[in-house]
Amino acid sequence: MPERPFFERDARQVAIELLGMELHRRINGAHLAVRIVETEAYLGVADRAAHSFGGRCTPRNRAMWGPPGHAYIYFTYGMHHCLNVVTEPEGVPSAVLIRAGEPIEGIELMARLRKRGADPAHELASGPAKLCQALALDLGLNGTDLLTADELWLERPRQAPRWTIRCGPRVGIDYAADWKRRLLRFAPAGHPHVSRPPPDRPLRRSRPVDDGFGPA
DNA sequence: TTCAAGATTTCCT
DNA sequence: GGAAATCTTGAAA
Questions:
Q1: What share of chain A in percent tops pLDDT 70?
Q2: What are the domain boundaries of chain A?
Q3: What is the CATH number of domain A4-202?
Q4: What is chain A's mean pLDDT, rounded?
Q5: Residue A79 burial (CB count, 10 A)
């Protein structure tokens, strides 16, 4: 399990390093887990696409301002939940949206938790709201400390996957002016469990957190 | 006080 | 391809 300093960093770096990590959930004695395969970084008060843009602090997004390594789960469109991992030190409101996961444990229960039920495995958690549905995540787990909770936690895989990570623009933020062009979405090249056609730009080795748009 | 839009998904045409 | 579902938030009136 990653330690607190892992999360206390730039959201872009955390977003990249969360790929391949396992997200575990215990519910009513059952054990569910997915391998994280798609993330997006949301960069604090300057990011027009972030809930924290302009220094906004509301009852909904309060967890973003809290200590790193906690869950920020929000309700949207009147019917969906989305899971984020809070990054940067307390008081710096940035987070990583977990957009998709590959089911690795409790697949049958996940299928039951999904409303559609009969989805093939690669569609059980291929989207931020689908992932929350498959893992039974809702506002009751908002603010959960992922380093200490029994119901929701992260684990490093026994063997780190040798993926080629690609980046691209974030999804569903057309309103965010220039920020919609920034390359803050990350996924393994060609991975079948991502939410939509995957990002296709290579990360530059010389600048591992380069988003193609210059420094934050 | 009212309204429009959203870090989405699903169903219908 | 388009619309519905329907809570939260910020902006307009």
A1: 93
A2: 4-202
A3: 3.10.300.10
A4: 93
A5: 7
**pLDDT of A83-103, one tens digit each?**
999 999 999 999 999 999 999
Mean pLDDT of the region A56-85 = 97
Q: Which nucleotide is nearest to A60 (CA to C1')?
A: C8
Greatest alpha-carbon span in chain A: 47
Cα–Cα distance between A190 and A42 in angstroms, integer? Answer: 23
How far is it, in rounded angstroms, from Cα A193 to Cα A125? 8
Q: Which of A102, A97, A55 is nearest to A80 (CA)?
A: A97
Query: What's the whole-number mean pLDDT along residues A22-32?
Result: 97
How distant is C1' of C8 from CA of A1, in Å?
33
Count CB atoms within 10 A of the CB of residue A214: 7
Query: Which positions of strand C lie within 7 Å of protein CB atoms?
Result: 5-10
Please, which residues bridge with residue A100 across strands? A38
